# Entry
Amino acid sequence: AQTVTQSQPEMSVQEAETVTLSCTYDTSESDYYLFWYKQPPSRQMILVIRQEAYKQQNATENRFSVNFQKAAKSFSLKISDSQLGDAAMYFCAYRSANSGYSTLTFGKGTMLLVSP
Amino acid sequence: DAGVTQSPTHLIKTRGQQVTLRCSPKSGHDTVSWYQQALGQGPQFIFQYYEEEERQRGNFPDRFSGHQFPNYSSELNVNALLLGDSALYLCASSFRSASYNEQFFGPGTRLTVL
# Structure
């Protein structure tokens, strides 16, 4: 079974600064997807960024980028130029690419606090 | 385009009761997954429905059951409620044939068991 570990329960950053959230995972599969989801106080889970394991290039979405280290099974999220609206719970998630029935395995989350 | 909707928003029940939660998927989606998110935890997969059948199931007891209707909407039923069933229940929909099958989440139903 796959597991996802987020070792930082809470992180703080000031507006306009950069912060990195850590995630490690364990799997015996070679083909999978990794995701970062954001869950603001409104509770709606929103996809921030995804990474296909077969791609060596790190994914980037505007101010959000990942550092994907497949051999180390590490998948960190970097948020540049942090904004107050980035404050939320961030979850790292894993999905196998081998099954047609997609299910997500989540970490416990990292609460990101953003101060002015 | 309406996204994933869930009802009700909040629900309070007592131990031993039964509850039904509802989910309408995003337009064009045919697969519905349910997750339980306990306070301070990440979501845990309960089960997934496609073509009105349960296709995958997580580590949840038989007290948790579901259904998918021909219009792809879905229900989650929990019988004999326990205090530990108090959680946010998230529904996610996806289109099975999509390239990486992104799941779109609803706002959740907060269930409190007293």
Summary: Chain A touches chain B at residues 4, 6, 33, 37, 42-47, 50, 52, 91, 93, 95, 97, 99-109 (CB under 8 Å). The CA atoms of residues 31 and 60 of chain A lie 20 Å apart.
